[in-house]
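Lab notebook, bench 4. The sequencing result for the construct came back, and we need a structural model before the next group meeting so we can plan mutations. Quick request posted to the team channel:

Model the 3D structure of this chain.
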Amino acid sequence: MFNNTKSSRNILVILLATFLISIGCNKESDSSEETITLKGTVLHGQSPIENSMVKIYLAGSSQWSDAVSLGETQTSSGGEFEISFSMTTDPEAVIYATASGASASIKLASVFGTQPLPSNVVINERTTIATAYAMAQFIDGDNIAGSYPGLQNAAATLQNLVNIGDGGIATVLNQFPNGASTSTLSKFNSLANIIATCVEQPSKCSDLFAISTSPNDEAPDNTLQAAINISHTPWRQEVISPLFDFSMNSELYEPMLNLAPDNWTLAIRYDGNGQQLDGPGNIAFDYDGNVWVTNNYTYSDDSSDPNVCGDTKVLRYTPTGENYPGSPYEGGGVYGAGFGITFDIRGDVWVGNFAFQGSQCPVSDDNQALLWNNVAQFNSNGEALSPDADLSVNPVIPGGYLSDEDAKIQGMASDHDGNIWMVNCEAESVTKFTNGDPNQRTVYEEIGIEKPFDVTVDTYGNAWVTSNYNDKVCKIDPNGNIQLVEGSFHRPMGIAADSQGNVWVANSGGMDPPCGSSTVEDFVEFIAAISSDYGFPGASVSMITPSGTVSAGSPYTGGGLYMPWGIAVDGNDNVFVANFNGKRLSYIAGANTSSLPPGFNTGDPISPDGGYTFDGFERVTGVQVDPSGNVWCCNNWEMIPVQTNPGSHQLVVFIGLASPVETPLIGYPRSPHTED
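Done. Here's the predicted structure in token form:
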């Protein structure tokens, strides 16, 4: 009986297991595949393009892997198409399309992004330009591929340029702080008119292909490749005016440029909900490419409002510039953060206090001095891990963790050992939290630095600190040994490491940070007196080699270096520099020139002599590169700052301009993984 019962139970278990497995397999099948029908129209402006071959693709999931063809069909006389295809419901899958016209020279494209897909789409010249720029770091001919989150975020960013449903201008590009407030809308339409000219007059396509030939003498044979070539080399001075002249052959898309631009970059501005950013100082990206921002002041749209205090929040935005759900985050002791923000190896974010505040903030000077000594820590959900401050008592109770007495924290960095580094501009010291533990605090003081401003960590685990006031850079090795490097530095500010073991220094040429002998009030007065077109004669970039010596070619000039402040290295080890004056971004060839056209040497300017100018810039401090290859800059202060509230209110993003960087940035930059 026992054996029979046991046998029966075994049979029941087997049957039940088989049933559950069957359910699981069916559920797997149901959830992993579905049939999608995509309807759309291929248009030239509002005119249909008939007999265009539309191909739908699933983008490759790692860099330069092969995209998968999902289906194809020809458009009707009304330019319409409908394609049904089966595919997995992977939420990271990116869908895109190309449309080849009756002429072999005409190829348009659009990227529809991840599911759910829109019910109807349009493919036209605007979607083609948006594809070429947003996907610049992921597209090779017809093939689009890349790893998470860069590819997905790039596809989402494309929809800030163009409405993929109707082919019109996207709301973000069309409205403030973009729209009529900057030249980007007109430039975008002029780029679309370049393609439209070829569609309208196929006989002119050969002229376009000659102008848009790559520096490697690779001539495009279709309009999509021409657009890609333009997006990859927006700095080429010899073709800027010819491209503009070619764009004037069509007035299909308006408004358009009336004069040739300085460059063919596309930059847009984000301001979140429009009521938070006031003096954004620096940014850091998390694993998903979300943007964490330090903010000098509590928001006020009135620059004459004297009552603004230091912001007590850390801000977080999505990769496409919207407020992240639940953001901003309060607590942790944040107050008037400046240039200091970094992620650690656990995914926590650290923010350094500088205690910026308006001239009549009710927080007294004595209490303000208690608030600039500490750093705050938040987890990836925005929950404060460091103690809160209490500003309601006198004297105030500062929150966060002590960096140093009388610190005024500026730059911060983390390394692969989990250490957190911070620079104390006022105290003229550097602090390390070993393993990210504030109880294991080491303060490096009296080490020969004056007004230290920024810190980076190289491939060997050395921390490098700019010493502004005495034109030096300080190296602190993992054992705490100190080395002072001097040579070609001139009032250095930002600093960044590359993957080759080099360190890059932004020489402002004359900047005097508001710490020590210079107050914020002094700095505002100094900057307000400088013409918006003024550049310090000593503005440059220096490179320190892995041996700890300054490169023989340093300092490097050109590329629009006016008043260097922030500096960042991209995934190909090339260098971007934010200028605090002149409304321009500089782009410099790095130590590894293999990604650049022939003829470039380390330190050569890639951006034009005037830099990548943009009329949407104010005074820029922080600059960083995201996983999609977008270059983010902080409009930190107004061009004419005032004592009461000098803060500006936007982030500026150059779309697809750089080689992507794996985030969060720990130490030196890495190119994102090419495998899943």
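The chain has two domains: 32-260, 267-654.
Will bring this to the meeting.
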